[in-house]
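Re: Re: ligand-bound prediction request (bumping)

Still looking for help on this. To restate: I need the protein modeled with adenosine-5'-triphosphate bound, output as structure tokens. Inputs repeated here so nobody has to scroll up.
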Amino acid sequence: MIENAIELKGLTKAYRGRKGSQPKVALKGIDLNIPRGSMFGLLGPNGAGKSTTINILAGLVNKTAGTARVWGYDIEEDPRNARANIGVVPQELTFDAFFTPREMLEVQAGMYGVPQADRRTEELLKAVHLWEQRDAYSRTLSGGMKRRLLVAKAMVHTPPILILDEPTAGVDIELRQQLWDYVRELHARGTTIVLTTHYLEEAEELCDTIAIINHGEVVACEPTKQLLKRIDEKQVTIMVAETLSEVPGSLAAFDASLNGDHGVTVQLNQSVANVGAVLAAVQKAGLTIVDISTRETDLEDIFLQLTRRQSGEAA
Ligand SMILES: Nc1ncnc2c1ncn2[C@@H]1O[C@H](COP(=O)(O)OP(=O)(O)OP(=O)(O)O)[C@@H](O)[C@H]1O
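Reply:
Sorry for the wait, this slipped through. Here it is.
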């Protein structure tokens, strides 16, 4: 029984530069294990190397160095088995416009050598809510429908790993929800899911483990909950009736700053947060509290901190 659905060791990719220009190093020796059965998020700013990683796994881009194993199979030594164990939903909506959804899944199943008796065309089209459109030309489908059709196409050979590259870009909220319902169902049935997304909230909600890559390097890889604890901060904003021109002296011991004319925001260490002490200090200054709000760290804060920190180091 394998432990990791995907294992990358020292994975490196340098794209050849145009004539006379330097090669572009997109991946700088990535080490990454994606546990079997996980719902794994691969995050990173534009150009971080996410698509390059996925395209190497899908066999669309050749790596420069390092190794990649899919379901235990080395992509170089055993490309057939590696590819049989992975389904990839690409970022680009690439289609043969004159195939219908039904034909497209049948052709894809044929390419993977799935026998007629084992084909799941109807089940898949129903699962992605495209059964009604089964015989329509795919060029007539909306962007969201095309995306869902690509998910069905990636699943024709029932791979144990499904990779989705920016699957909800351009998909409206309702359809996004339907897509995630289906992905969650696949995950519940044992499929390992890997997704890249720009929507950090989506990753926070869906993924049990998250890796952040930046400039071709992994800057974090840990369970989502643990990652969220990394920045141990909470913000408390207190609004008062009086007009403030400076932070009250009674708050000198805190990391406080003015927030408009009537507010003060205090950064607190979550594990030792003492909101009571902050409130007492505000009252000690003779101010009348009219409102209090708190904000905890979310993935976006962590993402920005990790990716900015690295840019700062590089500068
Ligand atoms: N075919 C190519 N030739 C040259 N450079 C490339 C090629 N494909 C990607 N790159 C470069 O490699 C780097 C990583 O790109 P990649 O598409 O993997 O990033 P990404 O994290 O998927 O970003 P995005 O979210 O924008 O797709 C970028 O600097 C990009 O410009």
